[in-house]
Amino acid sequence: MTTLRTLSLLAATVTMGLTAGLFAAFAYSVMPGLVRADARTLVLAMRRINEAILNGWFFACFFGALLLTGAAAVLHLSAGWNAALPWIVAALLLYLVVLVVTMALNVPLNNALAQAGDPDRLADLAAVRDRFAPAWIRWNLLRAVASTAGFVLLTWALVVHGRVSG
Q1: Type and span of the H or E element at 154
Q2: Lower CB density within 10 Å: C or N end of the chain?
Q3: Confidence band (pLDDT; 50, 70, 90) for 166?
């Protein structure tokens, strides 16, 4: 059981870290670069990114962080192992914020961008960009901060877990 606890916590930490890295990279490089481009470039690039990101690697990390963090929490409930539990639960709660923001805010913005039509045929491409980019950037920053904080908490939970098992 100790091995299962360790592996679940390690896998939760890795998937949380990968997800945090994705959101952070968008916050500090991708979106700052795209907002410096013209409206067509931003709209077209984000539409292509939103299409490409729906793949097995993304889903494994995005949903894996939730499932594996939840599993780690459950496995650390037993006496003697619960020293890491508060850190794991706090990380899980932060990741729930990430999920809610993604599903309730970022995904609808992505869908609206996709439904806006062909960028080469839009009369006011700047308006489409302006409805999308500022809100998407703001909510992605929240996802980046929350998932990074969750990653830090899981990393600390690994340290605490190691002290208990070692």
Answers
A1: helix 125-165
A2: C
A3: low
- Distance of CA 107 to CAs 21, 82, 128, 140, Å? 18, 35, 16, 11
Residue 21: exposure state from Cβ atoms within 10 A (0-12, 13-18, ≥19): middle
| Residues written for the chain | 166
Taking the domains of the chain in order of start, what are their residue ranges?
Answer: 2-165
Q: What is the per-residue pLDDT across 138-163, written as a single tens digit (0 to 9) for each?
A: 999 999 999 999 999 999 999 999 88
Q: How far apart are CA 152 and CA 128, in angstroms?
A: 36
If phi > 0 it is left, if psi is from -120 to 50 it is alpha, else beta; for residue 80 that is left
Which residue blocks in 2-102 are alpha helix, DSSP H?
Answer: 2-25, 31-35, 39-52, 56-75, 85-101
Judge contact between 154 and 12, C-beta under 8 A.
Answer: yes
Q: Which amino acid makes up residue 130?
A: D
Smallest Cα–Cα separation from 99: which of 70, 133, 71?
Answer: 70
